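Hi all, long-time lurker, first post. I run a small reading group and we've been trying to get comfortable going from sequence to structure in the token notation. Rather than ask abstract questions, I figured I'd post a concrete chain and ask someone more experienced to write out its structure so we can walk through it together at our next meeting. Sequence below, copied exactly:
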Amino acid sequence: MDLSNPARAVVPTLDAAVLAVLVGTNRPLTGRDVQRLCGHSQGRVQAILNRMTDHGLVDVVEAGPARLYTLNREHVAAEAAVTLSNLRGRLFERIRTHLEQWPVPPVAAAVFGSAARGDGTPDSDIDVLVVRPANIDPDDPRWGGAVDDLSRAIARWSGNHASIIQATPKQIAEMIKRGEPIVVALREDAVPLTETHVLAPSRRARQ
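-- Answer (accepted) --
Happy to help. Here is the structure in token form:
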């Protein structure tokens, strides 16, 4: 799955980028606004806006010399457009639900890296950090089985390889102390999968 625009898995054309822009706001946009946010030529974007307007999926109003476009959220296809544009969020929600069903719940978990930033490609790994309870052995079959199941599930849900990193609260505290690059990434772009932030358990580990 293209993590920068997951809708391309279903709509592999520029239409997916135009839809993502329109779904992401209720503010009327000019064709030039949409083109700038998509990063493609104005002619191609305008052709797509014209076609979507013809089908009623996009509303257009005249504003002086400009034409302003918004997604017609009452259209029967609008729900599908919104769903397609939020596939990355749906993936994260599936991961959250999976974690809630673990026989040994993680202390905390988060997606980080390109998947969290939304700039990955179909070849990018989906990086997940899970904080293992200090009293659980890494070889505990309940824990190991859950991690393996999640790795396989992410691959099935997205088509991307899952890179799952495990650490205890004490190890998180040590990584913070050493200033490891992963800590910077977690601070800048981590998408929480649990109520507790992945760096928070380190405070208890230092006590």
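A couple of things your group might point at:
The longest strand covers residues 58-63.
Residues 120 and 205 are 33 Å apart (CA to CA).
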